[in-house]
Amino acid sequence: MTTGRYLPNIGHMRRKAGELVPLEISALDAALDLRRRGVVEAHGFLLAKEMRDARGARRLTAYGTLYKALERLERTGCLESRWEDPAIAADDARPRRRLYRLTLVGEAALARARQESSEPSLGRAAAGAPS
Question: 22-112 belongs to which CATH class?
Answer without folding.
Answer: mainly alpha
